Amino acid sequence: MPTSTTVPPGTDLPDPGTPQVTDAPDPRRWLALAVIAVAQLMIVLDVSIVNIAIPDAGADLGISPANIQWVVTAYTLSFGGLLLLGGRVADFMGRKRAFLIGLLGFAAASGLGGLAPNQELLFAARALQGGFAALLAPAALSLLAVTFTESKERARAFAVFGAVSGGGAAIGLLLGGVLTEYASWRWTLGVNVPISIATALLAVVLVRESRASGDRHFDIPGVLLSTTGLVSLVYGFSKAAEEGVGWADPVTLTLLGAAAVLLVSFVLYERRAAHPLLPLRVVLDRNRGGSYAVFLLVGAGLFAMFLFLTFYFQETLGYTPLESGFAFLPFSGGIIIGAGVVSQLLPRIGPRPLIVVGLALSVVGMLWLTRIGETSAFVTTVLPAEIALSFGMAMVFVPTSSTALLGVEEHDAGVASAILNTAQQVGGSLGLALLNTFFASAVADRLVADPAAGPAAALVHGYHVAFVWAAVFLALALVIGAAMIRARRDELPSELVLAA
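Above: the chain sequence. Below: its structure as tokens.
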């Protein structure tokens, strides 16, 4: 899954008691960049590489259709829910130390998932992966910022970092297909173990430590309220998809009610907290709030598209895992090419026209996927949709990453950037859970209404329903983007490095 990373200029002041980057450039800084880029590649790659393996993993461990989305959701929900806290911990613990802990923890969680004998342990391992990724990702960004202090070198460093982020999804799709087809789905997780350990050993030698100064309080109540609220919400959606449960079941209603109470309590607490996890002044700005809402809804639609297309390719069209990986390449390629073009257009056109056109194109692409059938040709049904979605998303990711930092104070720049990534991950978690519920209900209803059509036809109908609702999310993002994002081209931050 492509990600968008926004990197603000400037960094926190170093802690005098910690080994620091001096005024003289680090002679090993470009080697350190390679180490940090490998860590970022693993984080980005880990969603797409596992996506290709989900059908095989589900069949091997007997995971039900209602629960299969937890292979992805457990990771994204943990990652998104803990990302803000992870950034604070990395700043105050020491970025190199957090980087090393994140790498080794990610390796351990990946190994545990690769050896999982049942779905419960696999889901738990994926959640652990997301938690360590939430520590690793902000530590990597901060280390780059403190390692490269000269503006031109920093731009080059983050350009490399962004290219890794953009290309990671494509690499993950192909590698996931190769490992699943010629080894086992378990190796899509196990491959992280040697890479993480080797990267950690190199980081000990090549990466310098740095630490932020100032207030070091952590908003633990905020973390607990937000994380438990989001888990309750996603689990409530998932329970509604289970056979014999549904939306009116007491368990579903209890989970959704608890989620509402917890999330409302989180917002009320953040308004009064002395050291809030989510400073409301950052999200209540019109342009920034609109940007976060757009990313939330885009994540909800896009993550689900990847999951359902994976099943369509392998379960309906009979593609091998490797063929599925190649089938997604036009999307990844379109994102990379489109981002380069949009980066050139943004200073001339401004963000709002690009966002509106991009989301409109994405809605068209998502609705085009409702043309798929049991024996559809890839070139005439899926390929046009992938191209429309990829260029549309490029037109959204790049300008929205800019408007998310518009007018933010320097001391809030880090949290503003983290909120954007959090919105995408949380949106992906919620969208997967909700659309999987709609998908499962649609399949069950079609089997009852027209049993003669068969399971394959019912699955295709379910995919259509999921894609329609994903298009609704993108259309809602279009309305919000058009109404709320009013930034002009001359108002954009001048030193942002954007990666789609």
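Strands lie at 5-7, 497-499.
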